[in-house]
Design brief:
By secondary structure, the chain is mainly α. It is built from 10 helices and no strands.
Length: about 180
């Protein structure tokens, strides 16, 4: 999203929440700072997606002040990932895969969504689940998996909400740290 599109988004927010923008006058230092910050925070996002998130928030919020950048980013994540699995749905997929993983763990693992695979950490986990006592699997293991899956989803959502330049910087730092560790 560019500066012009950012101004259009902020104009919509100003129309919906006039009290939040009451003290901002056009071309003031504060107004320019707000535009610059919003433009920077959404520079990697498409105008239509940000607009849809803002409209969705306007139509569903009951508070009388403008949504924050974080709320808009959260809504973007929600709108762009409508098929996100719940921890219970993910566990059902794991149970189904585990039921055929005594001899076919790799094939079953490969069929799972990437985030479920990441939570399992490998096909050998499915093989272990296939050999486990059903009661233990459906209580302790299920609970632990759902908790770790939920944490992993939250971590992924938080990472997805970061602006592109921050993601690039983190990637660069990760590459440097990996190089140092070698």
């Amino acid at each position: 999203m560019n500066v012009h599109e950012t101004k259009l988004i902020l104009a919509v927010l100003k129309a919906a929440y006039p009290a939040s923008f009451r003290n901002l006058t056009p071309n003031s230092v504060d107004a320019n700072s707000v535009v610059s910050l919003w433009a920077e925070m959404f520079s990697g996002d498409e105008y239509a997606v940000v607009g849809a998130a803002v409209k969705s928030l306007i139509s569903s919020r009951t508070v009388g002040f403008s949504p924050t950048i974080g709320e808009v980013r959260e809504k973007i994540t929600e709108l762009t990932n409508p098929d996100r699995l719940t921890p219970f749905e993910a566990w059902r997929l794991v149970m189904r895969a585990a039921s055929n993983s005594g001899y076919h763990a790799q094939e079953e693992y490969d069929k799972l969504p990437p985030l479920v695979q990441k939570a399992l950490r490998g096909p050998e986990t499915l093989r272990e689940y296939a050999m486990m006592d059903a009661e233990q699997l459906n209580t302790v293991v299920a609970s632990n998996f759902r908790k770790s899956f939920e944490i992993m989803c939250k971590r992924e959502e938080t990472a997805a909400m970061l602006p592109e330049d921050v993601k690039t910087m983190i990637g660069s730092l990760s590459d440097k740290l990996a190089w140092i560790g070698d």
